[in-house]
Amino acid sequence: MDNTTTLKDRITQDMKDAMRAKDAERLATIRLLLAAMKQKEVDERVTLDDAAVVAIVDKLIKQRKDSIAAFQQAGRQDLADKEAAEQRVLQAYLPERMDAEAVLAAVRTLVARLEAKGPGDMGRVMAAAKAELAGKAEMAQVSAAVKQALAG
For this UniProt entry, which residues form the secretion signal (predicted)? Predict the structure, then answer.
């Protein structure tokens, strides 16, 4: 993939490849992702950049995780497996994730830059962290790192 190819282009190409390969499950998941992207573009009258696409992928993966837990609790392993397969397809569109130490280091840098002093600054720091780390780290992990950094 060259540098001029956007994530959106890659997803569209993957859809065509899945069609040619007659990979119905992968195709259905990619179409679901493209539909979510199109919906966001239409609703907000914007053209999505890679960061916005990653945010959508993140949201869809979180939905899959929640569904898997619910299906397993209900004893529906067949449905949980289907959601897990969709999650694996979606995971391919995320950039490599930062490890816990890297997240904490990035958050500490942010806290210092924003001159945040304590728990009262959590919202301000989280807003900046979301903008800077979206797609690079799980937000639950970022939130925990922010709490830790602001607790001193």
Answer: none
Quick one: which H or E segment has residue 79? helix 77-91
Picking from 86, 3, 93, the residue whose alpha carbon sits closest to that of residue 52 is: 93
Taking a C-beta distance cutoff of 8 angstroms, is the pair 56, 40 a contact? yes
The pTM score is 0.70
Q: What is the pLDDT of residues 86-145, one digit of tens each?
A: 999 998 888 777 888 888 888 888 888 888 787 777 888 888 887 777 767 777 888 888
Angle of helix 7-20 relative to helix 50-73, nearest 10 degrees, comes to 50
Buried b (16+ CB within 10 A) or exposed e, 88-116: ebbeebbeeebeeeebbebbeebbeeeeb
For residue 6, give Cα distances in angstroms to 16, 59, 66, 129.
16, 19, 29, 23
